[in-house]
Amino acid sequence: EHCVVLLEALQNPQSNTIVIVGITPAEYAAVLAFTSEERDFEVRAKFAYFEDTQELQIMPPLPVHEQPAAHLSKAINKYTDALPYDKLLIDVTTHLNHRIQNKDTTNIPDLHLAVTIQPPEDDSAGDIEIPKPASKWVGESGLSSDYNFMVRKLSGTCDSHHDIDLALIIAFKERTRWHQPKETSVTAQTLRAIPALEYEEFIPARINKSLKFGPVIIHSHSWIDISEVRYSVFRRGTDGHFTSTAGIQTRLQRGYTLYPTVQMSDVERVLRDGANTLKGYIVSLMEGMNLEASAIQLVCESNPMFEPVWGAALNQISSAIYLTAYCRYLDWRHHKYNKRKITHDEAAQISSATTTSVSSDMTLVSSDLSTSLSDLGTSSSDPTISSSTGLLADAHPEPPLAKKAKTQSAEDSEPKSKSKQTKGKGKS
């Protein structure tokens, strides 16, 4: 039954982040297997699983999550293209939302830079080498209310993949927590009375410059309002950790803002150091393949600049913010939740009573269960969970806005008083 809950939540993400607790590794593995094998099942959510606490974080995929990673991807590609190494022998690829897998963990970071070597083939041999990609950079982008979850996710990724030497987080801080229009409001009644609007009908063609990052107020309702965009970059130290100690603690993490003021010089410096480290890694691969000394020297002497154009990032992220407002409108317009919570037993009865396909089961459960996941109290994520990388030590908590839902097994369900039937607890 837990798998039914998870599949429904992944197919119908809520307007804000939710956390489902009590999900075993076996249940999570079963869900991953199902989503990989069933072509007709579309996962519409971003998610991260934390095995130590058996929590599954699910958030809606929004343009503000994707655009910063796409911007940095362009800068990385421009830098590596300028390095004069043989691209057939060494491949550097920047992935967006690409699965990183090992025997114990599955991670899907927003940004993933991987390096793969393909040594020259031996014509006399009857077989070829199948190389394993090495992960070098990973990054996450999201709302600042999910900052600790992003740190935990990256920490788990770095713990499992020791080739990673740079991790970054881009956090968007909202002035106030976004909420859907109340169904009794004039805004909701007006927008539901007309057909769904196209982007050009919903977003004005021109705006005041001061509203570049919001608030995006349409029909008297604020759909998004960003007060800060902050970048944090983490470098792995020589001791294998993302922090090191020399007398007093030397922090290898730098966190500065792109908005409201552009304070990115230190971030850019750390990114350039990371790019130079990447260049050194490429040189070491060339040496390991015993390539010609002249080819190796050519790469060593090259000096391309890693240049993230922050002005372009501002413009692209501004566009993504307005597109996010439109996406939130469409999610609200097409998903009307009925605000009734149901117990896990009820969800199990729904799924066992139907004989249709699993995707149909999801639709049946969605009308009730989606609200039980979305309408619970707030809770904070715990930033003190141990990490061999030391990345978690740099977490700085944001006001917790993630919602937490707790699943309950059928055998543990007992009649309780109304005052004790809440499925999740909230902390402020």
Helix percent reads: 25-40%
Order of helices and strands: HEHEEHEEEEEHEHHEEEEEEHHHHHE
How far is it from the N-terminal to the C-terminal residue, by CA? 30 Å
**Global Rg:** 24 Å
Uncertain residue segments? 243-252, 336-388, 393-428
Largest sheet: 6 strands, mixed
- The whole-number mean of residue pLDDT values reads 77
Strand content: 15-25%
Number of strands: 16
Number of helices: 11
Coarse morphology: globular
Order of strands across the main sheet: 4-7-8-9-12-15
- Structure classification: alpha+beta
Could you explain how this protein is built, in words?
- The chain has 428 residues and is of the alpha+beta class.
- It contains eleven helices and 16 strands.
- It has helices spanning 2-11, 25-37, 63-82, 147-160, 186-192, 199-202, 265-288, 293-301, 310-334, 344-353, 358-374; strands at 18-21, 46-50, 55-59, 90-96, 100-101, 106-107, 111-117, 134-143, 166-174, 216-218, 221-224, 226-235, 243-246, 248-251, 254-259, 403-406.
- The strands form five sheets. The chain has a six-stranded mixed sheet, sandwiched between helices. The chain has a four-stranded mixed sheet with strand order 2-3-1-16, with helices on both faces. The protein has a two-stranded antiparallel ribbon with strand order 5-6.
- Helix 4 (147-160) links the parallel strand 8 (134-143) and strand 9.
- Helix 3 packs antiparallel against helix 9 (310-334) and helix 7 (265-288) packs antiparallel against helix 8 (293-301).
- The relative contact order is 0.17.
- Mean pLDDT is 77; it is low at 243-252, 336-388 and 393-428.
